Amino acid sequence: MLRTEEMILNVGPQHPSTHGVLRLVVKIDGEVIQEAEPVIGYLHRGTEKLAEDLTYTQIIPYTDRMDYLSAMTNNYAICHATEKLMGIEIPERAEFLRVIVMELNRVASHLVWLGTALLDIGAMSPFLYCFRDREKILDLFNELCGARITYNYMRVGGVKWDAPIGWLDKIKNFVEYMREKMKEYHGLIMGNEIFLQRTKGIGIVSHETALSYGLSGANLRCTGVKWDLRKHQPYSIYDRFKFEVPVGTRGDLYDKYVCRMQEINEALQIVDQAVEQFPEGGAIMAKVPRVLRVPEGEVYVGIESPRGELGCHIVSKGKDKPWRLKFRRPSFYNLQILPTMLKGQNIANLVAILGGIDIVLGEVDG
Amino acid sequence: MDIWVILGPVIMLFLVLGFVTYAILFERKVIGWIQNRVGPTQVGPWGLLQTVADVLKLLIKEDIIPRKADVGLFKLAPVLAFIPAFAVIAVIPFTESIKFADIAVGLLYYMSISSITIIGVLLGGWASNNKYSLLGGMRSAAQMVSYEIPLVLSVVGVIMSAGSLNLTEIVHAQQTGAWFIFPQFLGFIVFLIASIAELNRTPFDLPEAESELVAGYHTEYTGFRFAFFMLTEYTYIFGMASLITILYLGGWDAPFGLTFIPPLIWFILKFSLFVFFLFWLRATMPRIRGDQLMEFAWKGLLPLAIFNIFLTAILKEVSFLSHYF
């Protein structure tokens, strides 16, 4: 019997495919992974602690930096939680604007995922195609709120800026354009035998495991669990729109891919409906006091971010600053299953599986 | 002694260097075009001097050798990889008159000399004392050994048809019969796939899988040593494109009687077609996984190559087809 030795390989925090500053300590035998341990915290900024010294409005830009690929949903989480605790009713127009930007942001986030996940398995071109299309969304956001990544767009009680003239028409055009492109990408990718070989049956997670690890978002839905907070615990005005919750069956990488691709289509459908029903005129901010003093109490809201259930838990002691703030950051929870998924896999699958989970390190580290 | 014996190889070296320079630019332009970009445009008109600038940058870079590397092997590896890459070009006939060594076993020479590069790559990976390099080196050794076999077996069909290992003779056989891409189509497909794997190009670029192994076997190399590895890769593209032109596309033979176009131009056209095909693949294909690659080589390509040999042998005996085989 040939004596073989295990080798410890340090992947990251500077590595092309760890999507930021994730570090993985991997024990490999040949190219087969025996053990993998994620080491996180390289991007920890202590958002939750910092928030205790900030007023509610001041917290919003900090949330932009958590999941920097979909800052709009983060904005919404903190605003929605505060509004719920204060009992503020949001004007109709503001709700529509919020839904439109959140869904567009979901599309943008999934496009980044699509590009980078395919880049991880070696396909270079989809990355550039996806970023081209994401750029169009960022341009729309830029026009709306003057920022491309960290929007700081929502406020407690509404949104900061109204839609510029002609903006909604541009959104409509974009939805048309994106639908065409999605068909094109689907054809390009699904027709590729190597892609199918690399994703089918890789990184299978059963729905029991997924639930016990507390996975959410596409990571949970690809295992066959139909759970989408927009549908099952409707918040904002999501109950007014018709959309499907795509689910997978096997829970492998391929199902994750299919789920996210369909989610883009569903998000586009929501945007389309929201633009159709968009109210004429009206305020974009509710009447809120200048200094937000949140009544004593606690609140937890969970919303569906592109990565899963984004929760915001506020404990208030009646001051203008939260006594304690806690975010349930979906990337952090989704990452915890990685060691289980990687055991016994080839090293080439490491980056594919990691890419499939779709983490954002800003959110993992908080 | 003829002056050309000395001058010829020197000119060839510069030609190959020129090819490598502009192949890289061409690759970046092609991929840029496919990916909605423009590619290099800044250095020189249409970015023509971009690669020149890049090479100059590499040459004046600090030469870093990791402290714990095996210094001797570390220095030897790029040289060992490059020498065979240039040596194989010696047997390639570009036209009836432009050729260097017209040896009887040209094809065998090409196949055997090109295998030496693996040792350079493996040594480079080993001597760097870096785990990523080691994995990359091991992968490339495994890959190149697996693909060498279907590659060699797939050309057996051509050898049987042409009745010679001499590359000029192989072209002559195609001038009288048909280009071997038609009668040897199965062999051509196997050869094409195996040659891409031999060249470590997408979708078989596992040894330098950027997203997994950082840069594979040349992770620790900088400056001109790194440039040597790159040069090896592109010189092999030159060699392989020439070989595939000669073996399957009729070499300098003009199709449809278009003999007013000089044979060298025909050679360059066919050659460029293969080079473009490689770059096209790079922009469109994801990377295959190691075990799938092995399975594909041993269970897919190898039986096909052997089947091709049988097929050729049988069809050669069929009277009305024997002209083409």
Automatic annotation (TrEMBL), chain A:
Cellular compartments annotated: Cell membrane
Family: Belongs to the complex I 49 kDa subunit family.
Domain NADH-quinone oxidoreductase subunit D: residue ranges: 120-365
Record InterPro entries: NADH_Q_OxRdtase_suD, NDH1_su_D/H, NiFe-Hase_large
Gene3D superfamilies found in the cross-reference section: Cytochrome-c3 Hydrogenase, chain B (1.10.645.10)
GO molecular function, a single term: NAD binding
Topology term for the membrane: Peripheral membrane protein
Subunit-structure text: NDH-1 is composed of 14 different subunits. Subunits NuoB, C, D, E, F, and G constitute the peripheral sector of the complex.
Originating species: Thermoflavimicrobium daqui
Keyword field contains NAD: yes
Enzyme class: translocase
Keywords: Cell membrane, Membrane, NAD, Quinone, Translocase, Transport
Reactions accelerated catalytically: a quinone + NADH + 5 H(+)(in) = a quinol + NAD(+) + 4 H(+)(out)
Keyword match Membrane: yes
SUPFAM superfamilies registered for this protein in UniProt: HydB/Nqo4-like (SSF56762)
CC per GO annotation: plasma membrane
Protein's recorded name: NADH-quinone oxidoreductase subunit D
A Pfam family the protein falls into: Complex1_49kDa
Domain of life: Bacteria
Main function: NDH-1 shuttles electrons from NADH, via FMN and iron-sulfur (Fe-S) centers, to quinones in the respiratory chain. The immediate electron acceptor for the enzyme in this species is believed to be a menaquinone. Couples the redox reaction to proton translocation (for every two electrons transferred, four hydrogen ions are translocated across the cytoplasmic membrane), and thus conserves the redox energy in a proton gradient.
EC number(s) reported in the record: 7.1.1.-
From TrEMBL, chain B:
Compartments it resides in: Cell membrane; Membrane
UniProt keyword terms in alphabetical order: Cell membrane, Membrane, NAD, Quinone, Translocase, Transmembrane, Transmembrane helix, Ubiquinone
A single GO BP: aerobic respiration
Membrane-spanning intervals of the chain: 6-25, 76-95, 107-126, 147-165, 177-197, 234-252, 264-284, 296-315
EC number(s) stated in the UniProt entry for this protein: 7.1.1.-
Catalyzed chemical reaction(s): a quinone + NADH + 5 H(+)(in) = a quinol + NAD(+) + 4 H(+)(out)
Name of one Pfam family that matches: NADHdh
Function in brief: NDH-1 shuttles electrons from NADH, via FMN and iron-sulfur (Fe-S) centers, to quinones in the respiratory chain. The immediate electron acceptor for the enzyme in this species is believed to be ubiquinone. Couples the redox reaction to proton translocation (for every two electrons transferred, four hydrogen ions are translocated across the cytoplasmic membrane), and thus conserves the redox energy in a proton gradient. This subunit may bind ubiquinone.
Quaternary structure and interacting proteins, as annotated: NDH-1 is composed of 14 different subunits. Subunits NuoA, H, J, K, L, M, N constitute the membrane sector of the complex.
Protein name, per record: NADH-quinone oxidoreductase subunit H
Gene giving rise to this polypeptide: nuoH
